[in-house]
Amino acid sequence: MMLPTVLVLASDPVANVRFNVAKTFQRIHPILDADALAMHVKPCLEKLTQDVDHDVQYFASEAYEKLRTIHHSYRQKEDIDELYLVQEKYNEQLKSLYETSNKAKAEIESRTDKT
């Protein structure tokens, strides 16, 4: 994978190389998993936002903000998916409880009818 190479280039002495690292992260983020983004890309971009070169700072900040926004959107989607699963489970439990209640009611009615 190219991530290790890009991470090494983040320390290159040439500013144009470093700001292209930030641009590269913006382009390759869709193929990176969440762990790689959190453990490698985010810290690297945070470091580049403090770079001595203003162009590097700019492109790193732009990339960092874009990745942060995207990560936040993914997290919201994961939260929504989790809520749907919880709701499905709740609906199943509610249906089971309703069925049990109807069976109990029918049994009580059948006992009342016999007396």
UniProtKB/TrEMBL annotation:
<dbReference type="GO" id="GO:0000159">
    <property type="term" value="C:protein phosphatase type 2A complex"/>
</dbReference>
<protein>
    <submittedName>
        <fullName>Uncharacterized protein</fullName>
    </submittedName>
</protein>
<dbReference type="GO" id="GO:0005634">
    <property type="term" value="C:nucleus"/>
</dbReference>
<feature type="repeat" description="HEAT">
    <location>
        <begin position="2"/>
        <end position="40"/>
    </location>
</feature>
<dbReference type="GO" id="GO:0005829">
    <property type="term" value="C:cytosol"/>
</dbReference>
<keyword id="KW-0677">Repeat</keyword>
<dbReference type="Pfam" id="PF02985">
    <property type="entry name" value="HEAT"/>
</dbReference>
<dbReference type="GO" id="GO:0019888">
    <property type="term" value="F:protein phosphatase regulator activity"/>
</dbReference>
<dbReference type="InterPro" id="IPR016024">
    <property type="entry name" value="ARM-type_fold"/>
</dbReference>
<dbReference type="InterPro" id="IPR021133">
    <property type="entry name" value="HEAT_type_2"/>
</dbReference>
<dbReference type="InterPro" id="IPR011989">
    <property type="entry name" value="ARM-like"/>
</dbReference>
<dbReference type="InterPro" id="IPR000357">
    <property type="entry name" value="HEAT"/>
</dbReference>
<dbReference type="InterPro" id="IPR051023">
    <property type="entry name" value="PP2A_Regulatory_Subunit_A"/>
</dbReference>
